[in-house]
Structure formats: C-alpha cells, structure tokens
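Appendix B. One record, verbatim.
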Amino acid sequence: MAEIVWTEEAEQWLRYIHDYIATNNSAAAIRVIDGIFERTQVLRHFPEIGHKYRDEPEGEIRILLYGHYRIAYLLRPSRVIEVLGVFHDALDLTEYLP
C-alpha cells in the first residue's frame, strides 16, 4: 500500500479552496474538501490511476480528477505519493507545474 503525503503547498491550496467556497456556503466548502481528501485515498491502492502528466527525475507527476478539481501528485519509485496541489480545472497547470 502506498503512503500519501500532502505538501505544504497542497495544504495551502485546500485552505484557499475551502475559504473561497465558504464565503457563500460553509457546508459545501467542507464537503468539497472532504471529497478531495477522500478521492486521494484511492491512490493508496491504485497509485497509477491518475493521468500521467510528465516524468521527472524524482518520479511521475500524475493528475487525479475530482469534480472540477485536478489533484496533482508525484508518484515516487518508492511508492510514496506527494500531493503537490489541487487546482480548479479553469487554471492553466503549466503556470503551477512548470
């Protein structure tokens, strides 16, 4: 089973998403954040389920979808998964994952 580690930047993205949604609906904000977190749990058993975005010396950057969000993660050869960020699908990933 793979280990999932959230980077500080990914946690900041989650806080931003929560705060943005919570300005209109705090219950919906919690549901979205919980949904994103739960979606990543599939990676424990199926780490390669996400779309391969590109190869890096450290491993593969992959994208897992949840609703209108893209969860970017680094799959290391050791099977450690680092969640790099959570991006709304309207954002250009090349600006955040150069």
